[in-house]
Amino acid sequence: MNKELRSAVIAGNWKMNCGPAAAKALIEDLKPLCVNAECDVIVCVPFVDLHVALEATKGSNIKVGAQNCHWAESGAFTAEISAGMLKELGVEYVILGHSERRQYFGETDVTVNQRLRAALNAGLKPILCVGEVLEQREQGVTEEIVRMQTKIALQGVSEEEMKNIIIAYEPVWAIGTGKTATAEQADEVCGQIRKVLAELYSEAVAQATTIQYGGSMKPSNAKELLGKEHVDGGLIGGAALKAADFFGIIDAAK
Ligand code: 13P
Q1: Would you say residue 112 has pLDDT above 90?
Q2: For 10-31, what is each residue's pLDDT tens digit?
Q3: Is 137 left (phi over 0), alpha (psi -120 to 50) or beta?
Q4: pTM here?
Q5: Would you please indicate which residues are annotated as catalytic (active-site) residues?
Q6: Residue 72 three-state SS
Q7: Cβ of residue 176 lying under 6 Å from some atom of ligand 1
Q8: Tens digits of per-residue pLDDT, 129-175?
Q9: DSSP state letters, 19-36
Q10: Cβ(215) to ligand 1 under 6 A?
Q11: Are residues 11 and 65 in contact, defined by beta-carbon separation less than 8 angstroms?
């Protein structure tokens, strides 16, 4: 097991927060803080902020991501955004399969797979989210659920393409609730995901893939979570909206 093989990645998922003006201000606050960051830093902003975020991050070490993309290249899909459109704008990353998309917008493992393949084909780097709901954890099927989500999302994805994928383990019961998985729980499930990657691809792919934890991560718990063998980074919601808090987590990734 070798954590040094993998890049540490701290990504902010702003969700439906900040219009363009607030986005610019938050990025301007983050830029000086992140100059000496020892991990990759990504901000995943609302679609309407992408242009401003790409401008504001130019020449800095902060990268920009979107929060979803459609699976088709173009067509009659009112209000949707294609992977190619994001790529053309200069976006590098895209969150896919977030539990809020699954929960409120009917996304399934199959559509997550379609979106993921479209993102890869367009040259984007997906951040694939998986995670169990509280009932599933209580039923003792966390590993089965996360294995299934991972395997279906990665159908048709080649070993070469895995170099461009980050996986985020986000237990749904820990998102926005203030309840964090213990570092042991996070490490255990991230390790189970790594085992699936070894089965699907190879031990080398499993060891090289960055697996993040997400769910109420904050400066006060980041160090312990990020110190675990299988936790290579964080996908941060609420704490990504304040520059000092987000930086506190980036700093803990040292
Ligand atoms: P919180 O950090 O607000 O719990 O959100 C986590 C999350 O959903 C990131 O994608």
Answers
A1: yes
A2: 999 999 999 999 999 999 999 9
A3: alpha
A4: 0.97
A5: 98, 170
A6: coil
A7: yes
A8: 999 999 999 999 999 999 999 999 999 999 999 999 999 999 999 99
A9: -HHHHHHHHHHHHHHHTT
A10: yes
A11: yes
Atom index in ligand 1 nearest the CA of residue 175 equals 4
Q: Which tokens in the block code for residue 138?
A: 């209580």
Tokens of 113: 């797979």
CB-ligand 1 contact for 175 (6 Å cutoff): yes
* Site of tokens 């980036």: 250
Residue to mutate (ligand 1; options 175, 177, 211, 216; most atoms within 8 A of CB): 175
The pair of structure tokens assigned to 71 is 């699976």
Pick from 240, 217, 219, 251: nearest CA to 33:
251
Q: Which of 170, 241, 242, 245 to mutate to test the pocket of ligand 1 (most atoms within 8 A of CB)?
A: 170
Least Cα distance to 9 among 212, 242, 145, 215 occurs for: 212
Cβ neighbourhood burial of 72 (10 Å; 0-12, 13-18, 19+): middle
81-96: pLDDT as tens digits: 999 999 999 999 999 9
| Distance from C-alpha of 249 to C-alpha of 253, rounded to nearest angstrom | 7
DSSP string for residues in 218-251: -HHHHHHHHTSTT--EEEESGGGGSHHHHHHHHH
**Tokens standing for residue 154:** 């990665």
Is any atom of ligand 1 closer than 6 Å to the C-beta of 212? no
